[in-house]
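INFO worker-7 received task bundle
INFO bundle size: 2
INFO processing item 0
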Amino acid sequence: MIVFLFTGGTISMRVDAERGGAVPTLRGSQLLAAVPGLERVGAIEIDEWATMPGAHFTVDQIWALRTRVAHHVGRAEVEAVVVAQGTDTLEETAYLTARSVATPKPIIFTGAMRTSDQVSWDGPANLLAAATVAASPEARGQGVLVVFAGQIYTAADVTKVHTHLLEAFDSPGLGPLGVVDGQAVVFHRAVVTRAQILSPAALASPVDIVYAYVGGDGRLLDAARETGVGVVLAALGRGNTNPPIFAAVERWAATGRPVVITSRTHLGRVGPTYGFPAGGRSLFDAGAIFAGALRPQQARIDLMLGLGSGLTGAPLAAVFER
């Protein structure tokens, strides 16, 4: 049996004339009724978890959704779970699930870029493709996947790359794992993961992301330090800052709370390469944690998981060593 877990998002939306835009309206049963050929995947169970925009998710809600997914894959009669979610935060929920749920059963995230009252609504096609992957023996053991516009991605490296085109997701520099070709599921590359699964009782929060930019100073980092349990810095290039931002990092370090370094660029790893003042070496020497090739939003989730698991120091830094 495949569980379809519905959370809302564009896939469930129609334009509301009074509100002047699209809002979540359709329920899961209505969505599945619009998918021709779905009966071939076998038995289906619908879980109407929520009807909300992806942009409205809170930290507690994405953890609750992840926990709901874990509940379903823990049931002996469930072979796979398909989650339909708004695309604004889909990559974060999928990544959180991948980092915190250990199972060989397929967990598939999908959604839509067009509403049900637009021409060429992509919701039914994405649901059918996701169900096809969920029912495929080849998907077993591949971890959490995102299926969108006929492409199969791993939650470990997929990101939303376009605001409105149907092909809205990609894994920059890597590409998809495979494709859905009619009823065939074809994988072109394997999932490689070295990350440890972390399953705390709850996520540590708040953890903010602060971006570096030309002429930036430490105001935002200082503001985040007032209540934050940790912070992610989307630094420049290889992982560099300027002196005012570096001074704010030092103020964070003095509190003993972690600062995780990522890059605002789209590809490549951060590292303590540059020795000029406030460069990557300065950050490393100040005790900041370098997050390899993780994007800022991924590093934030890892930091919330690590701190939620009670990790500090070297064990926390090890979470990002991959």
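INFO item 0 finished
INFO processing item 1
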Amino acid sequence: MEILTPAQLAERLHVKPTWVYEQTRKRTDVRNADSLPYIKMGLYVRFDWNDVLAWPERQKRGGSKYQRPHR
């Protein structure tokens, strides 16, 4: 298991840290119901690199464990 800070994850993904934080928010009706997987450690947010690598695969398949209702 490799645990990363938001800044470390942002660097690996070539995105801004604000994007990383935004993707951890669960916004079922607004954006993505399947938020970026994270570990809450008190006041800190950390990321397991293996979980993060699996996340885009779920996005590509268009599925997640949280399915959006069809309207």
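INFO item 1 finished
INFO post-check item 1: The two ends are 39 Å apart (CA to CA).
INFO post-check item 1: Residues 66-71 have pLDDT under 50 and may be disordered.
INFO worker-7 idle
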